[in-house]
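ZP: hey, is the iron/sulfur cluster complex queued? I don't see it on the tracker
AM: it wasn't, my bad. submitting now with these inputs:
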Amino acid sequence: MNENDSIQLSNLLIQKLNIEPTKTLSDADIVIINTCSVREKPEHKVFSEIGRFAKIKSGRDIILGVIGCVAQEYGQKIFSKTSLVDFVAGTHNIHLIPDMISDVLKNRKGIANIAFYDKIESLNIATSPYDDYGVKAYVSIMQGCENFCSYCIVPFVRGKEYSRKSHDIYNEILRLVQMGVKEVTLLGQNVNSYGKKSSTEISFPELLYKISEIKGLDRIRFTTSHPKDFGDDLVYAIKNIDKVCNQVHLPIQSGSNKILKLMKRGYSREDYLDKFYKLKDNIVDIRITTDFIVGFPYETEEDFQDTIKILNEVKYISSFSFKYSPRPFSDNSEIDTVDDSIKRKRLKILQDLQKSITLQYNKDSVGKIFDILVDSSSKKSQEELSGRSYDNRIVNFKGDTSLLGKFVKVKITQAFQNSLRGELL
Ligand code: SAH
Ligand code: SF4
């Protein structure tokens, strides 16, 4: 989501201020740091990044802006933490940044805009492909979140849940496809609740059917699906629509019912497994990925073993896993009971197990043939191409650069931990 915000902002700045992107930081006159506050570590990193500008700014007249979730969280307070920042724009204020930069140029005074708006269609005005060959794009279909999981800062920094109009989404994808895009990833904190707050809007599975009619669009991905709102209609949409990749990111967070309840996730491990088996039994070669939090307050060894059991049962093809990090505003902002050394130990056990499961998937793929959307060539050798399979694995192979941006068939010959190697058919 942040990546997409950065893409949109850079397009917007190019359009409105008639400026150009630079290759290196030292050439830039305007530098904008887009930030994440979902855990403490990336938040700290923002302030060390800003600190790096002390030297760069002293010799030159650079405008420095901070945007995104940390900007939203701190607002004006950033100016009291550092004098290096010229403007601060919150998550709903990207469209104002060109004007903010003009104001800074005139007045050289720090400006902060962190207001929330109910409707933020204005954020979705300048999406473009994110890959070098213009074949893949992100499309935000909704903003914000109102689930208030007890550990999470997102509802406080991204605001209320708001679904964009389906015809605007459709038109945006149509425009992207006309530009050459073949694959879109629909974005939302919980895409399964798309349209649910409106009596006139279609549901998420209906949205998938609608956009799948767009000619020239070959692949549809989406993230993130919240398990509590994952219904049978979505299982059948994935099964029935060829363009929708048979891959679902379904964050479980923990395998322990006690912890899931404390997290306020709204499902039990049994509910989750029911949905998993619905997917597995209905869709051939479905691939599931997930997110885990380890060391959540009051997580015992037994709770952690429940998480390990889920990983062994579902056999996620890959997962993101994090140590619990207390976040301001959330219910649990003051609670952090599990020792860091235990968190670290559990994270390592879980990540080692995940690595072995991922490697097994990769080994099992040797000899199989995949449709690959070619999205890059190696910097070292022009003949080395790379692309992604339907389940988003990286596949490297030898081929001509004329294949960039196209679909090709590749037979897998070698398996590694983080990628596959194959031969062009
Ligand atoms: N909306 C998505 C998640 C968005 S945040 C969902 O509900 O699935 C991305 C991931 O960051 C979460 O799935 C969770 O695993 C992790 N995360 C969020 N808050 C966290 C915290 N306080 N500590 C550690 N990990 C956290
Ligand atoms: Fe955070 Fe929960 Fe919303 Fe996901 S669903 S963004 S974890 S509050």
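AM: back. The mean pLDDT is 94.
ZP: great, adding it to the tracker
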